[in-house]
């Protein structure tokens, strides 16, 4: 066994020991049992998680700083909720979402992130509610190579989010998105062809989140703010704006989390 392999095995064994003692609960999240609410917002950017906690939650307490993937639990309008970053891409969100579901008992997960518009009728700063998520990833085909499993949102969350956004006066689109493994595509024309078929936007996480939700019988929804327009490159946003100014999405996500409490 190589030194790297031995180190990995030793880490996993020591981590399982800590889990058994209820000191930590999972490999990538340092929270204890009960530190995380059963409802959570999942921004990709951990600094957006920090922003949400500081600006929307009362009595927010940080439960995770491992790999700087910040997670917080607090209250929103009297309801206990959590928020945690997931990083970029389906492999990353799959790790965090699975541990949140399996190790911490989270039942409702709402992704709040950015996306690039590929439907000509969708524009920067508008919201997209991902009713379903197509994907070019093999993350699901690894389990089901014979067919394509449809990744869909929880209808109750989708319905609530749509009506909440409309009541807030936010321009909102509902439909399919493309969850891609590739940010800088060498064949962007393929993405644009999907836009002509009504796919609203391209992002990198929703399909994996929906697949995990289906596996574990929990609720999931993707709410995206359009940060870029692939049909019109003059429509864009800065990195700072992506982190701190997409507050409509954050409010819709939080209101949706507590809608049925």
UniProtKB/TrEMBL annotation:
<feature type="active site" description="Proton donor">
    <location>
        <position position="228"/>
    </location>
</feature>
<protein>
    <recommendedName>
        <fullName>Purine nucleoside phosphorylase DeoD-type</fullName>
        <ecNumber>2.4.2.1</ecNumber>
    </recommendedName>
</protein>
<feature type="domain" description="Nucleoside phosphorylase">
    <location>
        <begin position="40"/>
        <end position="247"/>
    </location>
</feature>
<feature type="binding site">
    <location>
        <position position="67"/>
    </location>
    <ligand>
        <name>phosphate</name>
    </ligand>
</feature>
<dbReference type="Pfam" id="PF01048">
    <property type="entry name" value="PNP_UDP_1"/>
</dbReference>
<keyword id="KW-0808">Transferase</keyword>
<feature type="binding site" description="in other chain">
    <location>
        <begin position="111"/>
        <end position="114"/>
    </location>
    <ligand>
        <name>phosphate</name>
    </ligand>
</feature>
<feature type="binding site" description="in other chain">
    <location>
        <position position="48"/>
    </location>
    <ligand>
        <name>phosphate</name>
    </ligand>
</feature>
<feature type="site" description="Important for catalytic activity">
    <location>
        <position position="242"/>
    </location>
</feature>
<comment type="similarity">
    <text>Belongs to the PNP/UDP phosphorylase family.</text>
</comment>
<dbReference type="InterPro" id="IPR035994">
    <property type="entry name" value="Nucleoside_phosphorylase_sf"/>
</dbReference>
<dbReference type="InterPro" id="IPR018016">
    <property type="entry name" value="Nucleoside_phosphorylase_CS"/>
</dbReference>
<feature type="binding site" description="in other chain">
    <location>
        <begin position="227"/>
        <end position="228"/>
    </location>
    <ligand>
        <name>a purine D-ribonucleoside</name>
    </ligand>
</feature>
<dbReference type="GO" id="GO:0004850">
    <property type="term" value="F:uridine phosphorylase activity"/>
</dbReference>
<feature type="binding site" description="in other chain">
    <location>
        <begin position="203"/>
        <end position="205"/>
    </location>
    <ligand>
        <name>a purine D-ribonucleoside</name>
    </ligand>
</feature>
<feature type="binding site">
    <location>
        <position position="28"/>
    </location>
    <ligand>
        <name>a purine D-ribonucleoside</name>
    </ligand>
</feature>
<keyword id="KW-0328">Glycosyltransferase</keyword>
<feature type="binding site" description="in other chain">
    <location>
        <position position="44"/>
    </location>
    <ligand>
        <name>phosphate</name>
    </ligand>
</feature>
<comment type="subunit">
    <text>Homohexamer; trimer of homodimers.</text>
</comment>
<dbReference type="GO" id="GO:0006152">
    <property type="term" value="P:purine nucleoside catabolic process"/>
</dbReference>
<dbReference type="GO" id="GO:0005829">
    <property type="term" value="C:cytosol"/>
</dbReference>
<comment type="function">
    <text>Catalyzes the reversible phosphorolytic breakdown of the N-glycosidic bond in the beta-(deoxy)ribonucleoside molecules, with the formation of the corresponding free purine bases and pentose-1-phosphate.</text>
</comment>
<dbReference type="InterPro" id="IPR000845">
    <property type="entry name" value="Nucleoside_phosphorylase_d"/>
</dbReference>
<dbReference type="InterPro" id="IPR004402">
    <property type="entry name" value="DeoD-type"/>
</dbReference>
<dbReference type="GO" id="GO:0004731">
    <property type="term" value="F:purine-nucleoside phosphorylase activity"/>
</dbReference>
